[in-house]
Amino acid sequence: MNVLDPVKSIMTTKLITVSTGDKLTAVKEIFDNNRIHHVPVVRYKELVGIISKTDFMHFLRGFNRNQEDRFVNEARMRAYNVEDIMTKGIAKLSPDDRINVALEVFLENRFHAVPVVSENGELEGILTTFDIIKAIAATKVTPEEILESKKQH
């Protein structure tokens, strides 16, 4: 991975999204059935917010200890919409922004995901810290580079 490459080279493009009027039961189903931690909120194709798994768990106030807690949480999820708990003022990247710019955003703000939007505000992807880790792990290192690294240390 080259940090000067554009974020579009490593971002996730197959996204699961929700709309502002969706019930939180839909968000719970997404988190329960997919290995993701951030769900972009869109109005048509325009990004309007994001819900993190942490925000969602905070809304639920932790774990379900008994059947009564589960019943109350189910009722709350049916009563509230995505719009009620989504984060609205979010950082965004352009598909052509460099990966090093994304790294700075992650470091400064301690985010774990940043939506990637086109000039007209349409959601094109999301870049997560996991995407960066995958790209680094996939980077091929030659035996010569390993030897050179050992000589320097």
From TrEMBL:
Source species, domain of life: Bacteria
The keyword Hydrolase is annotated on this UniProt entry: no
Keywords (A to Z) from UniProt: CBS domain
A Pfam cross-reference name: CBS
Record bears the keyword tRNA-binding: no
Chain segments annotated as transmembrane: none
InterPro entries tied to this protein: CBS_dom (IPR000644), CBS_dom_sf (IPR046342), Diverse_CBS-Domain (IPR051257)
SUPFAM superfamilies linked to this entry: CBS-domain pair
Domain annotation CBS: ranges: 11-68, 86-144
Family matches, as PANTHER family: CBS DOMAIN-CONTAINING PROTEIN, CBS DOMAIN-CONTAINING PROTEIN CBSX3, MITOCHONDRIAL
Annotated protein name in UniProt: CBS domain-containing protein
The organism of origin for this protein: Phaeodactylibacter xiamenensis
